[in-house]
Amino acid sequence: MITASVDNRYHDQNPLPRARRRGGLGRTIVGGLFLTMGGVHLGLVAADPQVYGPFADGALFDFVRDGWADIVMTAPAVYGLLLMAGEVALGICLLAGGTAAKVGWVGVIAFHVLLVLFGWWTLAWVAPALAVIVPLAWRDLRAEQSRAGTVPPPVDVRLPG
Fold first, then answer.
1. pTM
2. Where are the alpha helices (DSSP H) in 3-122?
3. Which of 35, 55, 128, 142 could form a cystine bridge with 91, CB 3.0-4.6 A?
4. Directed axis angle between helix 76-96 and helix 98-115, to 10°?
5. How far is 141 from 159, CA to CA, in rounded Å?
6. Among 42, 51, 34, CA closest to 96
7. How many Cα atoms occupy the beta-carbon half-sphere of 12 within 13 Å?
8. What pLDDT score was predicted for residue 78?
9. How confident is the model at residue 18 (pLDDT cuts 50, 70, 90)?
């Protein structure tokens, strides 16, 4: 009879970093990306906040286009910095892990879904981004549940032999 089971000692001897073993590598990369993009928005605001002007020109709905022109573009530096703060906050949540990572994943996914309001052209970024982010979030949240003991452990499989 052949027996397959998980040996917990493997985890203690595994040379891979803990973040990588636990599915946190994706969370770290996405969190780092959002921190980086926060820095990009800081640079845009510092260089020329008017660069945000045409972003909503292809918006799917008039209220998005009008709101962008009437609200955001009246103080583009302020709204650019708010966008930066939001992206940095989501990045920090993802990097912190635990419950904060849940908030971070929901925020990152919502951020990408809402980008579609600015026009179909955003799907060139949103579709591939969500194709990566959603599975990473799912894997990370499942790993977190497993560590917390809320996911049943794998079944010990006994093969005839």
1. 0.77
2. 9-13, 18-21, 24-47, 62-70, 76-96, 98-115
3. 35
4. 140
5. 31
6. 34
7. 3
8. 96
9. low
